[in-house]
Design brief:
180 residues, alpha+beta, 5-stranded antiparallel beta sheet
């Protein structure tokens, strides 16, 4: 499998830039993107089982990797949820697939958002970033005619950075369009 352009960009451009910016002594200290987790919570799946299958098929089409159903951990009677009931779908991307998905997200999907002005720059305190997307139709892999309802998703970028500042710098170098 050939090396993706973002992986090459990371090795040739981002590592030297971050080494200089944060005064790292070895390239192993430079934070790296470890995985991207795409998660879709589907509360309405308690009434309609087809919602889960649809979400799994869409996530599989978007990422190129089989999505799995997430199961509830406990009973919640107010929401008609039983333990081990499917209530969402998720995919964890690593290595080549992760870089391919990130490239498609930055170059194709995000620019398709209506009135797009950039993404929020709030990280979680440990150098990880979660991006909320309200509609799955921004991905070209989704056929607009075939969807029954719009579903949102969370895309979490897990980095090896120790601080938000390092994680933010890493994601900015990858080309995520943060607001100023």
């Amino acid at each position: 499998m050939s090396q993706t352009t973002l992986k090459k960009h990371y090795d040739e451009v981002i590592v030297p830039a971050l080494t200089k910016e944060f005064n790292y002594t070895t390239p192993m200290q430079v934070p790296r993107l470890e995985k991207i987790v795409i998660n879709e919570g589907l509360g309405e799946a308690t009434q309609d089982k087809k919602v889960i299958e649809t979400a799994i098929n869409e996530l599989t089409a978007i990422t190129g990797q089989k999505a799995v159903a997430t199961l509830s951990k406990k009973d919640i009677s107010n929401f008609k949820v039983r333990k081990k009931m499917p209530i969402g779908a998720r995919v964890t991307l690593r290595r080549e697939r992760m870089y391919e998905f990130l490239e498609r997200l930055i170059r194709v999907a995000l620019p398709r958002i209506r009135d797009f002005k950039g993404i929020e720059s709030k990280l979680d305190g440990r150098g990880n970033y979660t991006l909320g997307i309200t509609e799955q139709i921004i991905f070209p892999e989704i056929n607009i005619d075939s969807i029954s309802k719009l579903m949102g998703m969370n895309i979490t970028f897990v980095t090896s950075a120790n601080t938000d500042e390092e994680g933010f710098a890493l994601l900015k170098h990858f080309g995520l369009p943060f607001k100023k």
